[in-house]
Design goal:
Layout: E1 4-7, E2 13-23, H1 35-48, E3 55-57, E4 81-89, E5 98-107, H2 120-123, H3 127-130, E6 132-134
Parallel strand pairs: 3-5
Antiparallel strand pairs: 1-2, 2-4, 4-5, 5-6
Length: 136
């Protein structure tokens, strides 16, 4: 039983089967986040989440607050919550059992994506191009 059904902009319905929410900067002990740190974080998230299905990163918004630059340059902030969801849907090829995709996205608050509160980038995913058909 899925945690939630999500309807993509294409009309495809996908099942959210697993969702991990974490603080985007949890563990940042000192200093302010900056572009290179964020880029490394995004690359690592995609690499670390390819275990069960292809991983797709929804490009996050980046904010540049009007504060004094840190030692590594201007402060750059990603949204506060990092989300990693495992989704399943009907396969593109009927000889398979299902299609799957791990999606990484960011949002301002901790919530399960649903209807109007779902990230527009999440809803715009091109499932057919990004997901992989699988057997049970």
């Amino acid at each position: 039983m899925p945690l939630k059904w999500v309807s993509l902009a294409s009309g495809r319905r996908v099942e959210l089967l697993d969702l991990s929410l974490s603080q985007t900067y949890g563990g940042l002990l000192e200093g302010s986040p900056f572009k290179e740190l964020n880029d490394r974080k995004l690359t690592r998230l995609v690499q670390d989440n390819r275990r069960f299905a292809p991983a797709l990163l929804v490009p996050p918004s980046r904010e540049y607050p009007d504060v004094r630059p840190g030692s590594m340059g201007p402060v750059e902030l990603l949204p506060a919550v990092t989300c990693v969801g495992w989704f399943r849907s009907e396969p593109a090829d009927p000889s398979y059992d299902f299609s799957a995709l791990t999606v990484i996205w960011f949002q301002a608050a901790a919530s399960v994506p649903a209807g109007g509160n779902a990230d527009p980038g999440l809803l715009a995913i091109d499932w057919e191009a990004a997901a992989r058909d699988c057997h049970y």
